[in-house]
Amino acid sequence: MINEHFLEEPNILDMSKEIFNSVVDKNLKVETRFQLLSKKIQDAETVNFILADGLGFSNLQSTESFLNEYINNSINTTFPSSTNVALTTIAMLTSPIRHGIFGYYMYDKSNYGLINALNWNSENKDLLQAKYFNSQSSVWSIFNENGIYASNFQPRNLINTPLSSFLYEKKSTVPYISQDDLLITFSDSLFLENKFNFIYYPNIDVSAHVYGVNSDEWLTEIKKFEELVKKILELSNKKSYTVISADHGLTNIPKENRFHITYKENINVYGDQRAVYINGSEKNIIKAFSNIPGKLINQTELNFLLPTPDNNFIESLYPDFCFLVEDKNIIYPQHLKTELKGYHGGLSTEEIKIPIIEISNF
């Protein structure tokens, strides 16, 4: 179930570093392990990075989308394959164990307890003000400090949320309400002259969660996204390079493979519903998960996916165990009740593999 070479393989962090290096001057470049992108990116006057939430490699290949013609490669996303983990990795240009966001839900053993690390509600958002998080500089800070013209296009409802405020610079962030609104805003010459544009597009993920991958509704969203991409590509008169990728893919879970688990206060269950983090004694955990298809792994085995913490702050967030739910299965811990059609967070190919799509006008 565990790919022991997972961390050695090309991933979303490697791709993000290459994109970053194409935008900044020589003195700001970071070390890379692979060459994943076309050398054309180095000659581009404008680099666009579109992150289509939930557009997994296998998901996309199951369609007849024209985007399949431009796939250059497929790589791994983060572990776990969760939106907040991937977005933080891109923005902070470092691995989850370094930046400290490594789960949909996290658990702070020292102070805050259970944390929704996607929405960061009022009870625990103060953790983001910790010195460890505040000491990190995002790529957006680097762009601003070095006079690099860059913009980050985000849905209006995500602006000023705790996670967005942590990841992005207000000065660089541009809100949009709809696809049409995004196109109108993006077509402004002010943005077309940018060296770098980042667009976060969530609609494909939302449709997959609610209706399932390959549903009529999901396929409609794929077509809408195709049209958006085509129109963006037509806007610039400069030499522009566009890379499209995702934070994860999704897998449909049959109703008969959904498990609601009950447990006592002697264990803490959090993380993601397909890669479940747990604190407590192994005996109590085995009892709680005895009827769930999957594998319980200890910290030594988890290190193949999420390396050992090297400081006390991250150690206070690091789980005692991880339960990897078998493919096509899902668990519902006591703090999550909503039943959806499509899910992610696990290690299946559908969830973990994301495409690199490259399109240029030169």
The radius of gyration over CA amounts to: 20 Å
Summarize the amount of helix as a percent range.
Answer: 25-40%
Q: What do the pLDDT scores average to?
A: 96
Percentage beta strand = 15-25%
| Helix and strand composition category | alpha/beta
Q: How many runs of DSSP E, i.e. beta strands? A: 17
Unreliable spans: none
Largest sheet descriptor: 7 strands, mixed
Global morphology: globular
Q: What does this entry look like structurally?
A:
Helix 10 runs antiparallel to helix 11. This protein is of the alpha/beta class and 362 residues long. It starts with 11 loop residues before the first helix and ends with a strand. 30% of the residues lie in helices and 22% in strands. Helix 7 links the parallel strand 5 and strand 6.
Describe the protein's topology.
Layout: H1 12-23, E1 46-52, H2 57-61, E2 71-76, H3 83-92, H4 96-99, E3 105-108, E4 113-116, H5 131-134, H6 139-145, E5 150-155, H7 162-167, E6 173-176, H8 179-186, H9 189-192, E7 196-201, H10 203-211, H11 216-235, E8 240-245, E9 251-252, E10 258-260, E11 268-271, E12 275-279, H12 282-288, E13 294-298, H13 299-302, H14 312-315, E14 321-325, E15 330-332, E16 342-343, H15 349-352, E17 353-360
Parallel strand pairs: 1-7, 1-8, 5-6, 5-7, 10-15
Antiparallel strand pairs: 2-17, 3-4, 8-17, 9-16, 11-12, 12-14, 13-14
Helix pairs in contact: 10-11
